[in-house]
Amino acid sequence: MSMIRFEHINLSCKDIDATKNFYQTLFPDWYVRAEGVFNGDRWMHFGNNQFYLALNDDSQQERVHKPYESIGINHVGFVIDDGEAMQKLLEAKGIDYYTMTAAETKHRIYVNDPDGNEIELVEYNPDYSLA
């Protein structure tokens, strides 16, 4: 047995529409794959034909995980094709970010979504193999 592909991340959100709009800014080709209500709470699958975020409306809940300070996911990385364009987009939208460097990457951009989940946006150097 082997994994075929990484399919989704399930996120609880204070404001499902704000979270959707944030990720739509980063990834304009993403779309609502499915949505509905379960046990009175709204949910949405938002992404593309390979990957999606399962967003859950949990507006009454508070964040308890502190990335890099407790056990849990610290950030989720997405490969992008144009780091310079992404930085310009983030600046135009007033979205705070920071960058880091690494030998294998052209751009490493870090940004937090509306619920404080850190996202890494990576553009690899052309000679770095992703295969």
From TrEMBL:
<feature type="domain" description="VOC">
    <location>
        <begin position="5"/>
        <end position="124"/>
    </location>
</feature>
<dbReference type="Pfam" id="PF00903">
    <property type="entry name" value="Glyoxalase"/>
</dbReference>
<dbReference type="InterPro" id="IPR037523">
    <property type="entry name" value="VOC_core"/>
</dbReference>
<dbReference type="InterPro" id="IPR029068">
    <property type="entry name" value="Glyas_Bleomycin-R_OHBP_Dase"/>
</dbReference>
<dbReference type="InterPro" id="IPR004360">
    <property type="entry name" value="Glyas_Fos-R_dOase_dom"/>
</dbReference>
<protein>
    <submittedName>
        <fullName>VOC family protein</fullName>
    </submittedName>
</protein>
<dbReference type="InterPro" id="IPR051332">
    <property type="entry name" value="Fosfomycin_Res_Enzymes"/>
</dbReference>
<keyword id="KW-0479">Metal-binding</keyword>
